[in-house]
Amino acid sequence: MKKDIHPQYYNDTEVRCACGNKFKVGSTKPDLDVEICYKCHPFYTGKEKFIGIAGKVEKFKARRAKAAAKPKTAKKPRVKKQKK
After folding, report:
1. 61-74, pLDDT tens digit by residue?
2. CATH fold for the domain made of 10-68
3. What segment(s) does the record annotate as region Disordered (predicted)?
4. Is residue 50's pLDDT more than 70?
5. Residue ranges at the known binding site for Zn(2+)
C-alpha cells in the first residue's frame, strides 16, 4: 500500500442517532450523527413510520386535487409556418 494517502481509521467512532441511541463502530470519521438507526428503522422495528420532510404527501395530494378540479381546456392546433 502507498504511504500517506489513506485516511485515518478510528476503531471507536461513536454514532449518535436522532432517537437518542448511541453505539460504537469503526469509521474514518471520529464521530457520526445519523437520523435513523437499527433501533428506530421501520424495517427492524416492524412499526410503520413516515420518514422524510413533513408536508410532502399533503402538498402532492393538494396538487392532484387542484388539477382534478380544474376543467381541461382544448389545446390549439399547431400551425406550421410557411417558408418564404
Report:
1. 888 998 888 777 77
2. Rhinovirus 14, subunit 4 (4.10.80)
3. 64-84
4. no
5. 17, 19, 37, 40
- Known binding-site residue numbers: 17, 19, 37, 40
The dihedral through the CA atoms of 14, 15, 20, 22 has a sign that is: negative
Q: Give me the mean pLDDT over the 52-66 stretch.
A: 81
Neighbours of 77 (CB within 10 A): 5
Q: Which three cell numbers stand for residue 20?
A: 437518542
Rounded to whole angstroms, the Cα distance separating 38 from 21 reads 9
**Phi and psi based region of residue 33 (left: phi greater than 0; alpha: psi -120 to 50; beta: remaining):** beta
Domain ranges in the chain?
10-68
3 state SS of 34: strand
